[in-house]
Amino acid sequence: MTEFVTTEVRGGIGYLTLNRPQALNALSLDMIRAITQALQTWAAAPEVAAVVVAGAGGKAFCAGGDIRYFHKAAHEGDPLLDQFFVEEYALNFLIHRYAKPYIALMDGVVMGGGMGISQGARLRLVTDRTKMAMPETNIGLFPDVGGGWFLARTPGRIGEYLGLTGTVIHAADALYAGLADAYLPRNRLAELVDSLRTQQFASGDAVLAHIEGFTAAHRDDCVPAQSTLAGLSAQIDSLFAGNTMPDILAAVSDAPGDWAAQTAAMLRSRSPLMLCVTLEQIRRARSMSLEDELRMELDMMHYVFRNGDGVEGIRALAVDKDHKPRWQHARLDDVSREKVLSFFDSPWRAEEHPLASLGKTA
Fold first, then answer.
1. Which domains does the chain have, with CATH numbers?
2. Edge-to-edge strand order for the sheet containing 123-126?
3. Nearest to 302 by CA among 92, 112, 135, 74
4. Catalytic residue among 14, 64, 113, 140
5. Active-site residue 310, yes or no?
6. Beta strands at 50-55 and 60-62: parallel, antiparallel or unpaired
7. Choosing from 66, 107, 128, 136, which is the catalytic residue?
8. What pLDDT is attached to residue 358?
9. What is the DSSP letter of 169?
10. How many angstroms separate the CA atoms of 316 and 138, rounded?
11. Catalytic site residue 64?
12. Based on CB atoms within 10 Å of each CB, which residue in 55, 247, 267, 289 is the most buried?
């Protein structure tokens, strides 16, 4: 285990807490291993009926993976960089397929890897402090941790919009997009946790019923603000339906209004290469199983730190912090179709893939 993940079993619930608040609970490989070990142990433990996962510190559930480590490991050729993603994606799949109710308390910042350990939850609770995003294109990456899969299953073209821009959304938008299930203000969420900790639960269904009863009792005073995404949905569906990334940017650039202008500016600041790769990823993911999509993401991630814009993007945003990334391609029109498709060529034979066993029974 690690000091950055704490576990406790109480009243039939396994409490899993990310405890690295100084880094907004960003995931390290040791943390991924500790979470995996706890979930595997609890899956077979009769005294654990359900799991509740939360972040310590009051600011974040989990802000993602440790991107400074990614940068350092990529420069040093550290083989643990590949292993990080192998084990992270295996954990994401474990959560999606977990036999017992897994309940994510998505309070504060929930981004990247934080989405990976929450989107597979049976119940995803958001609060008035939730700041949710898949911001990977901002650092020359793509929305991984199953991001292609769950973004592709949002209404209309919202998945393309969120994945390409990395826009931060809040509780009402998360509910509208199907990326959350219920809302409680932060103070009510604390009351819910207190109420769970005073009970003894004999089954996972009893835990879920208790939470449902609590949220129902407070429904009238627990209504989030109106969804911005809902109001923009028709425009998003129209503008992000283009067949290619240049088509989408042209449509957004030509659209009237401040939102379209801001969105176009956001797209222009991203890596042209990774915008094209991300669009291809989300479009492919619509017809893929979760396990196949995660295998595809591992193929993509193997490529992105060797021949993509990931190292440069992290340098500009998180290491040197000059916010002036030197992307491989200056414009979308410079990105060849062959370059994009190369991200989807697996470096492994199917039977030797590190995630070959996902979705297969023992």
1. 5-352 (3.90.226.10)
2. 5-10, 13-18, 50-55, 102-106, 123-126, 182-183
3. 74
4. 113
5. no
6. unpaired
7. 136
8. 94
9. B
10. 10
11. no
12. 55
* Neighbouring residues of 360: CB distance < 8 A, sequence distance ≥ 6: none
Nearest by Cα to 129 from 190, 193, 87: 190
Residues 6+ apart with CB under 8 A from 145: 88, 89, 92, 112, 113, 115, 116, 117, 297
For the stretch 262-286, pLDDT in tens is: 999 999 999 999 999 999 999 999 9
Q: CA-to-CA distance for 177 and 347, rounded, in angstroms? A: 34
- Which of the following is catalytic: 12, 14, 64, 65? 65
Cβ-in-10-Å burial (0-12, 13-18, 19+) of 142 comes to buried
The H or E element containing residue 53 is strand 50-55
**What does the pLDDT look like over 186-238, one tens digit per residue?**
999 999 999 999 999 999 999 999 999 999 887 776 667 789 999 999 999 99
- Report, in this order, helix, strand and coil percent for the chain, each rounded to 5: 50, 10, 35
Q: With a threshold of 0.90, does the pTM exceed it?
A: yes
The token pair that represents 307 in the structure block:
């021949």
CA–CA dist 114, 126 (Å, integer): 13
Radius of gyration of the chain from its Cα atoms, rounded to whole angstroms: 20
Q: Would you call 221 a catalytic residue per the annotation?
A: no
Name the phi and psi angles at 329, rounded to 5.
-120, 135
pLDDT at 291 over 90: yes
Q: How far apart are CA 194 and CA 199, in angstroms?
A: 9
Upper half-sphere CA count for residue 184 (Cβ side, 13 Å): 23
Of the listed 144, 181, 280, 299, which one is catalytic?
A: 144
**CA 55/CA 99 separation, integer angstroms:** 22
